[in-house]
Design a protein that fits this description.
The protein is of the alpha+beta class and 247 residues long. It contains 7 helices and 5 strands, in the order H-H-H-E-H-H-E-H-E-E-E-H. Strand 2, helix 6 and strand 3 form a beta-alpha-beta unit.
């Protein structure tokens, strides 16, 4: 007689593989703690950098406007004319001499254009003279001219002050009414665009000549070579390029 007791079911082993113990390097590293430590380290480095920048010696090299006046790049419109070092013959190239330098001193006197002999010898300080005609830098009058097309010729010493204020000067020595009108229209158009530019007659340079200057830059050419784009390009690139007083 068959037994009535049910046969117990056999339990099958699980198909899942047993988990392997964590032995990898990444499994052992405390990732959250490392992330926090990295953030703290970056914060410390940034703080140190900020302190160094805040206490950086301003006398170690030229500031922005001094870099601009020393930039002799041929990509900037106009011929580069080295900055005039003033009566002491020493060019200021670090921030510490801004207050005491005479490169941009205000003088109540007429400053002559350097002779060929002075330029050849390099002695442009004793006696003081301007190292280009028209001038492009150096001591000057304490009073700049208005930025406009001037009705009457302005002293060159006053116009150098305009260049110290980041401006461009358009000089002309011609009686050609058509050329003068075209120049004036060009200057007025640039003034409408808020460019710092002044235009004046200047009889101390060669007849039938136009010159466009900014601090340490000069473009000088015969009236026959005049074209509006040449003047406009100079103004656009050089207005406020040298701007030590933040105009």
């Amino acid at each position: 007689m068959p037994s009535s007791t049910p046969t117990p079911q056999r339990v099958r082993p699980s198909a899942a593989a047993p988990q392997r113990a964590k032995t990898g390097l990444m499994d052992k590293l405390p990732i959250p703690q490392l992330a926090i430590g990295l953030v703290v380290l970056l914060g410390v480095l940034y703080l140190a950098y900020s302190v160094i920048q805040a206490n950086k010696d301003p006398n170690t090299g030229p500031v922005d406007w001094q870099t601009a006046e020393l930039n002799s790049s041929s990509t900037i419109p106009g011929q580069y004319v080295a900055p005039n070092p003033g009566a002491d013959g020493q060019l200021c190239t670090v921030a510490s001499c801004i207050a005491s330098m005479d490169d941009r001193a205000h003088l109540q006197e007429v400053i002559p254009i350097c002779t060929a002999d002075q330029l050849a010898s390099g002695n442009i300080s004793k006696p003081l003279c301007y190292n280009s005609n028209p001038p492009t830098s150096g001591p000057h009058s304490g009073t700049p001219m208005p930025f406009k097309v001037l009705d009457n010729p302005a002293p060159k010493e006053n116009l150098v002050h305009n260049m110290e204020h980041g401006g461009v000067v358009v000089w002309y020595n011609t009686d050609d009414a058509n050329v003068i009108k075209q120049l004036a229209d060009t200057v007025n158009s640039e003034l409408d665009r808020r460019r710092l530019v002044v235009m004046s007659k200047y009889t101390e340079m060669e007849p039938n000549t136009i010159a466009v200057t900014s601090w340490t830059r000069l473009d000088k050419f015969p009236v026959t070579d005049f074209n509006k784009k040449r003047v406009t390009d100079f103004i656009e690139e050089n207005s406020k390029r040298f701007n030590p007083e933040g105009f």
